[in-house]
Amino acid sequence: MSDTPVIGVLALQGDVREHLIALASADALARPVRRPEELAEVDGLVIPGGESTTMSKLATLFGMLEPLRERVRAGMPVYGTCAGMILLADKILDPRSGQETIGGIDMIVRRNAFGRQNESFEAAVEVAGIEGGPVEGVFIRAPWVESVGARAEVIAEHGGHIVAVRQGNVLATSFHPELTGDHRVHALFVDMVRAMG
After folding, report:
1. Among the four residues 22, 51, 65, 193, which has the most C-beta atoms within 10 Å?
2. Rounded to whole angstroms, how far apart are CA atoms 74 and 41?
3. pLDDT above 60: residue 155
4. Is the pLDDT assigned to residue 119 strictly greater than 90?
5. What residues act catalytically?
């Protein structure tokens, strides 16, 4: 891998374009990923926000669920925001019927924990490992992490709830940093992908 890693954004549903922009600004070559053969060509992957149940069903429909699980198990760096965090959880507290996860982080996540769409908010969040002060987090029907296992590291909390977790090469935030113009979380993830090179 060169100094410019190729990072995919899972483009089945959700705010794909904003992640592509954020990754490009953090010096990665960013591209949408919809099919297993596209997944095979990337060094890392972002799973965007959206609707986690829909994304899980589309991943199954597009033949992506097993290839995603295999790449995560094999150590590919992955970063999930909001719905992406839910998909990276080993367990969902209140799954919808037929909802599956990719897994990768030993955590239990509660869907829509911060409330409905009209209860969306922004907040300054201190994230361990990110310098330069708090990150502006946009919370939209955001999940939170109920509990983590021994291998998962809590890197941010808000209002007494876990909102960012890292386990090895897998990173997840319940907020959307891609909507703020502050690309430090994406830069952290790009560095994680580079470190695999």
Report:
1. 22
2. 14
3. yes
4. no
5. 82, 176, 178
